[in-house]
């Protein structure tokens, strides 16, 4: 299968609606790809906290409408990154949207691990509770978002739910690029999955984003990577490698799940 990561530049020079139409044009330009991926919170801006209430929308809002049409036009599965979702009770969530080739919404995932400690996302957004995987015509796709990369138990949960490929939209800070590069390779290697992490570029909310979107195979090998600016990386992914590598190096069968906490003496 062929996958493209569209590393959008997200900064204060354009509006959310302008970014929607630019992203849709880029997605349509990937006609024939099997999977297209966008970054985290590329409409409102992951670090522009003051804009979240203004740019929040429903799961069937303007971003979903435009991205659905773009997926249908491209004939591709589209992971439309994430939106600031406003639930019916007014709670905000960082929510990923996955559309199929006909433009139908086939999966959504509310980010479980919220970044910011006592600020930003951690205080302004609700946290998701559900592990989400979606069957596709090229394999089972697991959904995670940015800061989730720091929590291996989520990725083990995705593995146990059948994931063969995990998609991670991100808005990772440039100051910690080395963490992003290490964690993406580690999560792919430990779960023996393909991992596609699409990061944002540009500066907004005072934060420079890292870029360097990446495709990693189940050996932990980087198959494709962008630079720091807006660009698209396209990689051919051999999904049969997941089963082959798990068979050749069957480490997952040696998991010990009933480990007991030692007693204090």
TrEMBL record:
Transmembrane region(s) = none
Molecular function (GO) terms for this protein are:
hydrolase activity
CDD domains assigned to the protein according to its UniProt record, in alphabetical order: nitrilase_5
Keywords for this protein: Hydrolase
Per UniProt, residues of the CN hydrolase domain are 1-239
Pfam family name, one: CN_hydrolase
The keyword Hydrolase belongs to this UniProt entry's keyword annotation: yes
SUPFAM superfamilies annotated for this entry?
Carbon-nitrogen hydrolase
Q: Which PROSITE patterns match?
A: CN_HYDROLASE (PS50263), UPF0012 (PS01227)
The family classification in the record reads: Belongs to the carbon-nitrogen hydrolase superfamily. NIT1/NIT2 family.
Q: What is the official name of this protein in its record? A: Carbon-nitrogen family hydrolase
């Amino acid at each position: 299968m062929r996958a493209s990561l569209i590393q959008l530049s997200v900064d204060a020079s354009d509006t959310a609606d302008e970014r929607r139409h630019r992203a849709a044009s880029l997605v349509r330009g990937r006609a024939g790809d099997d999977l297209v991926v966008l970054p985290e919170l590329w409409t409102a801006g992951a670090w522009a906290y003051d804009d979240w209430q203004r740019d929040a929308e429903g799961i069937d809002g303007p971003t979903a409408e435009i991205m659905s049409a773009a997926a249908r036009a491209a004939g591709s599965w589209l992971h439309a990154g994430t939106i600031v979702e406003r639930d019916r009770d007014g709670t905000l969530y960082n929510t990923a949207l996955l559309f199929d080739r006909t433009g139908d919404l086939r999966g959504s995932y509310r980010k479980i691990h919220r970044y910011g400690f006592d600020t930003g996302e951690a205080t302004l957004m609700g946290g998701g509770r559900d592990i989400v995987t979606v069957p596709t015509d090229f394999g089972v796709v697991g959904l995670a978002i940015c800061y989730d990369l720091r929590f291996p138990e989520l990725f083990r949960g995705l593995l146990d739910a059948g994931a063969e490929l995990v998609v991670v939209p991100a808005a990772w800070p440039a100051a910690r690029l080395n963490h992003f590069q290490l964690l993406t390779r580690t999560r792919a290697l430990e779960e023996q999955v393909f991992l596609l992490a699409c990061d944002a570029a540009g500066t907004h909310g005072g934060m420079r984003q890292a870029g360097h979107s990446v495709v990693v195979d189940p050996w932990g090998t980087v198959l494709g990577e962008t630079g720091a600016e807006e660009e698209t990386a396209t990689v051919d992914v051999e999904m049969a490698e997941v089963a082959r590598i798990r068979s050749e190096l069957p480490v997952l069968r040696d998991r010990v799940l009933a480990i007991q906490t030692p007693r204090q003496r």
